[in-house]
Amino acid sequence: MATKFLTVLTLLFLGLSACEKAELILTGSLEVxxxxxNGAPVAGANVHIESLSRTGTTDSLGRARFIxxxxxxxxxxISHFYHESVDLVITVTDHPVARAVVALPSDPNIPSLHFNHxxxxxxxxxxxxxxxLLNVYANNEARSPLTYTLYSSIQGVVAGGPVEDRIYTxxxxxxxxxxxxxxxxTAESGHQTTNAFSVEVEPVPPAxxxxxxxxxxxxxALTWTATSSFAFRSYTVKRAxxxxxxxxxxxxxxxxxxxxxxxxxxxxxxxxxxSVVLNLYNxxxxxxNTVGIKSSVDRLDLDQPxxxxxxxxHRSRLYVTSWGTSDVKVFDxxxxxxxxxxxxxxxxxxxxxxxxxxxxxxxxxxxxTIAVIDPDRLDLVRSLPVxxxxxxxxxxxxxxxxxxLTGGNIVYTGYGELAGKLVLADTRTGETVAVIDEYPFTVxxxxxxxxxxxLYAITDYHVRQFSxxxxxxxxxxEMLHGFSSPIRGFVPEDNRYVIVGSEKHDSRDLKRLVxxxxxxxxxxxxxxxxxxxxxxxIDAEVDNLIRPFAGIAMLGALNEAAGTSFFVLMxxxxxxxxxxxxxx
Length: 584
Fold this sequence. Notes:
- This protein folds into four domains: 25-104, Immunoglobulins (Immunoglobulin-like, Sandwich); 112-202, Immunoglobulin-like; 210-293, Immunoglobulin-like (Sandwich), CATH 2.60.40; 298-580, YVTN repeat-like/Quinoprotein amine dehydrogenase (Methylamine Dehydrogenase, Chain H), CATH 2.130.10.10.
- The termini are far apart.
- The strands form 13 sheets. The protein has a five-stranded mixed beta sheet with strand order 9-15-14-11-12, with no helix packed on it.
- It is mainly beta.
- It is 4% helix and 54% strand.
- The longest helix is centred in the N-terminal third of the chain and has 21 residues, at 2-22.
- Strand 30 (360-364) and strand 31 form a beta hairpin.
């Protein structure tokens, strides 16, 4: 019994000793915070205590906690797939909590991306059919091979392939809609870097509609529909014409709501065809319908440059010759329609109508003849031989100035054998009545009043007044003028003055200057009140502008019976324009 009691006491003593020894093992806690090189927390990093074979994982704040760890020094390994591992030794005590902050360097295999295009801060917008440009620099420190994949939320994988320092490709065929795009670049080690961006693909906008083009007193007013497309760059107003005498593009608008334009530069007397082009940012041009505008100025269009005009007020006809042709075209000056063409044996020069209007004389270039036309029959009725001082097969004459006088005579001069001569001839036979060749003047401009008994010959430097008799021409008076080139002259039916170039002289005393003009004349009315100048229709009495031209006229003819003026502009040599002589 005593032995049994001693045994129990011994066991109790041993138990108390074991408990006392266990209370001597101290424990503590460990908290490890893991960041990247920029100080941002790294979630999912493994924190491994080697001697304890315990591993923790960092939370969203980058923290991993261990409790009830025996106090000791521990070797800890911190690792993460996208970072290099870090080894450290941490001492755990029973108080306070052992803490360590570890910055993991990035793994050199991780791809690094730099976007040149598209801009990740802004949604990209495309027009259907346009490619998406992907321009991204991609590499890693390890310089290991990389591949990329571009994924669309609408169409799946739309591009991919190996990467050589840069991804540069145009992604074709994106459907209309808003694409959530994901670009993933993968290293050979499996490390990936991903970026997301948005691309909106819109339908191609409709072309603008040119609603109207209206001719007003200020110009042509255009109106078209607006666009709401984000791809708008500008509108271009285009103007085309048959004559092609002005540029096609005339105005640019850079506001999509600017949908009107007033064209104030429409070339005088020209038809125009207008359109509007919508220019998109991708250089696409969407062209509207066209609207044509007919010029309000009456005109005749010919194929060749016009050489001479002659107005026949007896019949309301206009005779026209052109350079490079051998005919006279006859137009109705009221209806502006062609009524006939008279064929000639050569190139026509000057035209002159007889005082009674029954014949038209046409000097023929190099033919040695003057053609006589019947205006009623619209036919060549005869040819008059031209005077030659040395007649023969080699004689060349160019009658370029003709004056048809009353009494059945004409006076002509010209080049070649006619140089420096005035020839008075019979209009029926062409027989020479008299020749004046004692004056060394160049080709004259011949003008005379309707009476037929006076003739003015205007040369480079002289004005000579002749009386016309049955025996020939008798010099009455002459004067020097101040013009150094061939000029034109005009005289009204009452012969009260003669116009030489831009000067008006008293016909009784040529040296007396009556007045001057600001422009040379191309035609003068019979009463001397209205003239066609190079720049305008003018009041020839006081030299006031009646109607300015939109250009420089080189030919002109007055239709006094109809109160209209015909003229040809230098920049439109194939067109004859008609305007009322006095504006309505």
